[in-house]
Structures are given as structure tokens and as C-alpha cells.
């Protein structure tokens, strides 16, 4: 039975030195992981939002090169990362094997380095830049007018105010 799952945070935890930690490991939660925090005097009940922080700090066993993951690190996550870990927790603890496989596949696709963009095709028959005609534009020269921008301020007619 698999009890630990690797994850990759969307943004990453930024430590005091400015290092970003995105890769981590979360283990399956035990009943104690969910009950013990309710005995903590700083947790006001099952609806206390801090309960999530405490539970995640118990089940996230590693994050990047951090020596330990505590409440402090979980509290320092960006909101997107906290939401991601909450969803990850729910899927690995309560989802089916199919749900877990889908989550891990999606995570791999998201964390894979992007493919380099294809090189733009250069056509010998391409029209001159900026829609100008070829007259006055020599080989390799470009029109001084910027592409996609107005070259002069245009007056907008008044609506009779």
C-alpha cells in the first residue's frame, strides 16, 4: 500500500533566504492527525480555519530542502499553494485510486518544463512590414511606424456636449 505521495506546488514556499521550495511529500493522514489538533487550545473547533494548517503541517513530511515542515511554513504558503495542498490531501486520503492517478498525471503535466516555442516561419513572399508598399523600403529596412500602434493622435469627433 502506498502511503506517501510527491507533489509540486503551483507557486512554491519562499523561505527567509529567498529560496523557493515547490517539491514535497505528503503522507496519508491517520485518525490521530485529524483528532490531535482538536485538542490544541489554539484551535476553536472543527470549523476553525487554523485546523487545516495544523493538519497539513502534520502530513507534509518534506518541502524542498527545508529540514522540517511546521505550522510556520504552511502559514507562509501562498493562497494558491495552500488550496492546492488542501485538494491534494482530499484526493489522496478520500479519493479512489483512479482519482489519485488522475491527480498525479495532471501534476506531472503541469510541472513538466514547457516545450520551446516553434521558430517562426520566414516566408520569402511575405508582405512588407506594417502594411507599407515596397516603394521606399530597401532590403532589410523597416518602416519607422510601430506595428499595431497609432502613428499620430487622432481626433475623436464631439458628440455635441
What does this structure look like?
The chain is of the alpha+beta class and about 160 residues long. It has a domain at about 5-105. It has helices at about 30-35, 50-60, 70-75, 80-95, 95-110; strands at about 5-15, 20-25, 60-65. The termini are far apart. Residues about 130-155 have low confidence and may be disordered.
Strand content: 5-15%
For the largest beta sheet, what order do the strands appear in spatially? 1-2-3
Q: How many alpha or pi helices?
A: 5
Largest sheet: 3 strands, antiparallel
The average pLDDT score comes to 82
- Flag low-confidence runs: 131-154
Q: What is the terminal-to-terminal distance?
A: 76 Å
Q: For the CA atoms, what is the radius of gyration?
A: 27 Å
Order of helices and strands: EEHHEHHH
What's the β-strand tally?
A: 3
Give the overall shape, derived from the CA principal axes: globular
The class by helix and strand makeup works out as alpha+beta
Helix content: 25-40%
The assembly state of the depicted protein chains is single chain
Concise structural overview:
The protein is of the alpha+beta class.
Amino acid at each position: 500500500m502506498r502511503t506517501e505521495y510527491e507533489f509540486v506546488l503551483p507557486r512554491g514556499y519562499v523561505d527567509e533566504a529567498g529560496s523557493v521550495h515547490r517539491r514535497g511529500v505528503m503522507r496519508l493522514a491517520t485518525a490521530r492527525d485529524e483528532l490531535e489538533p482538536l485538542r490544541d487550545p489554539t484551535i476553536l473547533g472543527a470549523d476553525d480555519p487554523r485546523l487545516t494548517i495544523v493538519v497539513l503541517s502534520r502530513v507534509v513530511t518534506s518541502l524542498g530542502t527545508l529540514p522540517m515542515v511546521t505550522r510556520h511554513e504552511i502559514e507562509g504558503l501562498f493562497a494558491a499553494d495552500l488550496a492546492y495542498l488542501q485538494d491534494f490531501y482530499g484526493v489522496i486520503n478520500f479519493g479512489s485510486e483512479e482519482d489519485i492517478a488522475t491527480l498525479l498525471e495532471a501534476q506531472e503535466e503541469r510541472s513538466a518544463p514547457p516545450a520551446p516555442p516553434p521558430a517562426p516561419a520566414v516566408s520569402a513572399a511575405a508582405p512588407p512590414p506594417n502594411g507599407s508598399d515596397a516603394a521606399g523600403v530597401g532590403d532589410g529596412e523597416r518602416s519607422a511606424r510601430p506595428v499595431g500602434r497609432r502613428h499620430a493622435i487622432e481626433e475623436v469627433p464631439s458628440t455635441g456636449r
